[in-house]
Design a protein that fits this description.
By secondary structure, this protein is of the alpha+beta class. The protein has one domain. Helix content is about 20%, strand content about 40%. The longest helix has 12 residues.
């Protein structure tokens, strides 16, 4: 996905440690290239300073923008994602969410529902 100028400026500010993005939390994911994830770390950018923070992305909106980087020398893959820092804000990935997240699929109930609906 091609990033618009607003998104690109958000990433460039973080990468160069320039600016303030008070409504953004940056997620840096490190993993073995084509392997398991090693860590997730979260940062803010305020007054030209990146600060590592404790952050729970569960109730935050993930934005549709990311940057990926590969380090062949160290066999690492890094992903940079952007979250809104405001709780409850709708994100651009909400359309991928299930109606009731963290629930199990019950085929017997689904079949009963479809039968009752005449499908």
């Amino acid at each position: 996905r091609r990033l618009d100028h607003g998104d690109e400026a958000t990433f460039q500010g973080f990468l160069s440690s320039k600016g303030t993005r008070s409504n953004v939390v940056y997620e840096v994911r490190e993993q073995v290239d084509n392997g398991p994830t090693l860590s997730y770390r979260y940062f803010t950018l305020v007054n030209d300073k990146r600060t590592c923070i404790d952050f729970d992305p569960a109730d935050k909106a993930k934005r549709t923008g990311y940057k990926n980087f590969r380090c062949s020398e160290h066999n690492r893959f890094f992903s940079l994602n952007v979250y809104s820092s405001r709780a409850g804000e709708r994100g651009s990935t909400d359309h991928h969410m299930r109606l009731i997240p963290f629930t199990n699929w019950r085929e017997d109930l689904a079949l009963e529902f479809l039968k009752d609906a005449g499908v």
